[in-house]
Amino acid sequence: MGLLSLGTPMEWKDAQPLASHVRKHGIQQFLSLWNKIKDRRGDILLWGDEIEYIVVSFDEETQNAKLSLRQEEILKVLSASDQETRESAPGLAGQIPTFHPEFGRFMLESTPGSPYGASPKELRGVERNMRLRRQIARSHLKPNELPITLTSYPRLGVTDAPFTEPHYEPRGNASRSMFLPDELINPHARFPTLAANIRKRRGSKVAINMPIFKDVNTPSPFIDPSIPWDRDFFPEDAEAKAGAAKPDHIYMDAMGFGMGCCCLQVTFQACSVQEARTVYDQLIPIGPLLLALTAASPAYRGYLSDVDCRWNVISAAVDDRTPQERGEPALDLPGHTPRGGLDRDAEKIPKSRYDSVDSYISQDPLNRRSYNDNPLPINAEVKQQLLEAGVDDLLSDHLAHLFIRDPLVIFSEMVDQDDETSTDHFENLQSTNWQTMRFKPPPPGGRIGWRVEFRSMEVQITDFENAAFSVFIVLLTRAILSFGLNFYMPLTKVDENMGRAHRRDAVNGEKFWFRKEVFRTRNRHASRQASRQVSRSGSAEDLQGGARSVNGIENGNGHGSDNGRASPQSIASSSSDGVAGSPADEYADFSMDELMNGKGDDFPGLVGLVHNYLDSLNIDVETRCEMGLYLDLVSQRASGQLMTTATWIRQYVRNHPEYKGDSVVSQKINYDMIKQLDRIERGEVDAPGFLPRGYAARRQSQETQPDLRAQA
Questions:
Q1: Nearest-angstrom CA–CA distance, 615 and 307
Q2: Measuring CA to CA, how many Å separate 21 from each of 28, 148, 334?
Q3: According to the model, what pLDDT value does residue 117 have?
Q4: Model pTM?
Q5: Average pLDDT over residues 243-250
Q6: What single DSSP character describes residue 667?
Q7: 61-65, 94-98, 363-367, 439-443: which has the minimum mean pLDDT?
Q8: Which of 208, 310, 499, 683 could form a disulfide with 316 if both were Cys (CB 3.0 to 4.6 A apart)?
Q9: How far apart, in whole angstroms, are the C-alpha atoms of residue 635 and residue 7?
Q10: Domain of life of the organism in this record (predicted)?
Q11: Furthest-apart CA atoms within the chain: distance in Å
């Protein structure tokens, strides 16, 4: 999670006067890097995933599934094991997965040892690599511990029973939370300082309010009896009663509630900065759709909520804006002022620093100015500096918008840096703007190119699901670039989609804005005809057999100086505009089924476009079938044939014999549910309506001891 530097972190009162210094030198560092790598071309498509796990400790005697706070110990053991493998089998060094610390001491993050390529045959190894990482992590845990890819732990912050192992009282000075102890936070100096400085800059604790799910016996209005309303350990304890906690909502008061959520992220390397900007823009409208399709977090602090996704929880959990910046009155409490923890007045900022994207950045002629219709506060001084250095207006706006924020953690040893060789000040701000997409320059002096990070997805319970959604996004980017697809629409509509994606059962109950015509003008008719002719016969009915018919045409796509597509210049010149008329005529409401699986002759569907791309390649039947299994999962999730993880969790809780119809996720329900999810992941039980038919048998056939040699 972000930049993990070594040193002495500064408290907010000492860091605030240095904010301008960090911004000034951060943009100088970017410009120094930009001048060296802006013309870099020829990087091949590489990509990787990041998967986050929660480590659960089962107490069989009390039937309690608690969070294990052994992250440091587990990572040390994993590191020692990795080193032993490197020494005994140096040829496998590139295959060794990497495990990283995360904000919560109950979390692990894993990445593949080496990036993947984009050829379909290489994509077949993604699920195997994810499974290997899970097996390695599991093999280094205690017998009663489990690494589970669960987006949010349903009982984080409950007050009726211990929820961590070991147990600590919530009396830490960093968060000052009434629910979460500081011992839950990764002890690296960056993390507790981040939590404390968000609170201090804001001028209060963060206030996260998720609507309660109103079941038959849920009190109305719901006033949470588990909040210690009269606690007086910290001055901030009075905030809940003063209005921070809303009726009919689940109240949370610390960064850990958001940054304790797990996600699935995918990062792509592009061949050039132009291609990276194109991919960045075209994936922006996809973010809310994949958030809804991967929805996996309906429960918080021991209650069922009326939302299915984590995004707004994290957004509120790191919202360091003052009341003045939020456009809200300060709480009516001593020491609470509109300025919060700032020593100056500040302009209104519409969003948290963890939110959706606010501007498109590609210079493609299809990027009409009217699509950037969100309010975009910028740092005018930074923008002027960028423009004078020759950076174009769109990219200057993007960076100047990121640089309206203050740095939250400054290390005293790193205040003065060489702007020609370091990018730490730039990354300080870049890495603490958490948006649905991230545009990432190459690190200085390395072999890594321009990258784009897709960040909206919730992590799924099984490696099969995580591989399916990762592979789908990779193949969609290939289709975007190969066919010159156009997904542009106003960003205000993308934001509307983000709101809709959070709603309960959004996949089946909501419609989403999307562009009606996704093909560029010149090739529109041909592209439509091609997408209609995608072969859907022989679709894999289950995970054990049934290859798709393949009519591949070799085109060498996927490698080389342009990753197998026309240059941005030639694509731009193939159409005078690519759009016509008012932007309001270009988009419409679609169901998720229509968006993914198509709407007759009117819309091909994103899954259909990916099938079209695959059919243009010369790939073997076995690989085509494997890709088909992944696309079938996306397709069936979108059509409602398969439910989301959030829906499965909600149904499990409500059907549990101990559930009282009151929205409460009890200790016993949580224990049984996590045990059942583990059995499902292992393939020990079937999960009809949740996973495809045949998943359990397929998963059982793959159960082996972790072996790096099998990955080579």
A1: 38
A2: 11, 42, 32
A3: 93
A4: 0.92
A5: 99
A6: H
A7: 94-98
A8: 208
A9: 48
A10: Eukaryota
A11: 71
